[in-house]
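[User]
Um, tokens okay?
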Amino acid sequence: MSESTITSHTVRAYDTELEILGRKIAEMGGIAEKMLADAMDALTDLDRDLAIRTVENDPRLDLLQRDIEEQAILTIAKRQPLAVDLREIIATIRISGDLERVGDLAKNIAKRAIKLSTEMRIPRALIGLKSMHETASLLLKDVLDAYALRDAERARAVWTRDAELDALEDSVFRDLLTFMMEDPRNISFCTHLLFCSKNIERIGDHSTNIAETVVYLVTGETLPTERPKGRPDLSDFSTTVSA
């Protein structure tokens, strides 16, 4: 076998490894999107069975993330990639980590839905959360599309629009406080929803993390560490709710 043939086979095998990594990221993205949608449907409809099925999907994401990490490390060791190829592999490791966390946050919402399935309902309290879910879902979809298309501008748009989700979370926080002040019997229900709103806001953060990774992958540039803010700093509250 000639040297050129061996080189061609090596390059083809390397391309195949990168394609497999990309397909696994796409699979993780699909699972994470469905888990988020199912968790919110379970919360809105107080559907305990759907919430349980959502929780049961989480291990699949965990396994995929481990597979991607192991394969990415093995590829780096074998191929010793540079420049764009190295960024490609590093990006899969970063994005798989963010998608695994999105799955964890969706699972948390589903667990809240299970707890709330026997509690009283306040349909008005869920309106704001539905808006947050719509925005977070769109950000996640757009950033996964940006990764698939290697579209840095689309990724930058997601990074900027995360501020919308911050503003919505602030509005939900005020609404839920109002419900609690109106009737102390609402406190338990609304507290669970506060945790859910924080989970959705953090899903937006992971979408912006992925957006930063896509920009880095495509251009080699890093975005500013300070992201656009859609509301005043609520770091004290955030720390309390996410604990």
